[in-house]
Specification:
The chain has about 280 residues and is an alpha/beta fold. It has a domain at about 5-135 and about 170-195 and about 255-265: Rossmann fold (3-Layer(aba) Sandwich), CATH 3.40.50.720. Helix content is about 40%, strand content about 15%. It is built from 13 helices and nine strands. The protein has helices at about 15-25, 35-45, 60-65, 80-85, 85-95, 115-125, 145-155, 170-180, 200-210, 225-230, 235-250, 260-265, 275-280; strands spanning about 5-10, 30-35, 50, 70, 100-105, 130-135, 155, 190-195, 215-220. Helix 6 (about 115-125) links the parallel strand 5 (about 100-105) and strand 6 (about 130-135). Helix 1 (about 15-25) packs across helix 8 (about 170-180) and helix 10 (about 225-230) packs antiparallel against helix 11 (about 235-250).
Length: about 280
């Protein structure tokens, strides 16, 4: 394949793994994110680094030029899809991008209020060939979104109740994304991606306590308390509202199903939660 594979959000948890997995398989990558210097620091000369900003159309031409396949994701802070993401999808279409692998959510067909659903719908509306990676909750959310509460308060603060979650490691998502971008036959497919075990948050806290060597407590607020407290801790309202909606859906079982798609597509068993905590132990010290 002569044209580069574009990875939008290459500095993110998943985007970074997508880049690494494509490179490991011999692919050519154009890595796009807000900070070109950070891209070069992370990936060196192995990638073509370009500045991309969803809300700055002046970055679109360089980003999409000569690209046929791309990995596309929604930044957590973006909730107005029509205003802040549709222009980049239109630009990609005009530039000749034909296949989009989009990082979506498991159970999206039942949670049509979330922004990811609007992105899926728009990509279909403009007749893009798509592969939707509909993922369960990322293990890495616990060392990014929830890092501070775990590190400073020794708690996990989510309104999930007794429900279980089939967490998936971002490294496994990256591996699946690389396969779907480098191989033919994945256009038009939707893949529900999960880990190989389902855990409730008491079990999550127990595993983390054991490995980190200190007690981590699962706080189980009701959704309204979660929304108010999350905003009080500095999260913007719309972002906090989306988080509340997703965790409420999880409370009713959205994230409990387990699939074998990761192993089927990559040939490798999903990373376990225990392995994830061990690998990222330093992030919580």
């Amino acid at each position: 394949m002569s044209s580069p594979i574009l990875v939008i959000g290459a500095l993110g948890n998943v985007g970074t793994e997508v880049v690494r997995q494509i490179l490991a398989r011999g692919g050519k990558v154009r890595a796009a994110d807000m900070d070109v210097n950070k891209l070069r620091e992370r990936f060196g000369e192995a990638v073509e680094a370009v500045r991309f900003d969803f809300t700055d159309p002046s970055t679109f031409d360089e980003t999409f030029k000569g690209v046929k396949r791309m990995f596309y994701m929604r930044p957590p802070h973006i909730t107005n899809i029509q205003r802040d993401m549709a222009p980049s999808m239109d630009a990609a279409k005009r530039a000749g991008v034909t296949h989009v692998v989009f990082l979506s959510l498991i159970g999206i067909e039942n949670t049509t209020y979330v922004p990811h659903y609007k992105v899926e719908t728009y990509l279909k509306a403009i007749n893009m060939q798509t592969t939707f990676l509909r993922c369960s909750f990322f293990m890495q959310n616990l060392n990014t979104t929830h890092r501070r509460e775990i590190k400073e308060r020794n708690e996990i603060f989510v309104p999930v109740g007794k429900a279980k979650t089939a967490f998936i490691d971002a490294r496994d998502i990256g591996a699946v994304a690389a396969v779907t971008l480098l191989e033919d036959g994945h256009a038009g497919m939707n893949y529900d991606l999960t880990g190989s075990q389902r855990l409730d948050y008491w079990e999550v806290a127990s595993i983390m306590s054991e490995i980190l060597g200190r007690r981590i407590t699962y706080r189980n607020p009701n959704p309204l308390h979660f929304l108010i407290e999350t905003m009080r801790r500095g999260t913007p309202f719309m972002f906090a509202l989306v988080m509340t909606g997703l965790y409420t859906s999880t409370r009713f079982g959205m994230a409990e199903p387990i699939t074998d798609e990761v192993e089927r597509l990559t040939g490798i068993s999903p990373i376990t939660f225990r392995q994830y905590v061990t690998d990222y132990e330093d992030a919580r010290k």
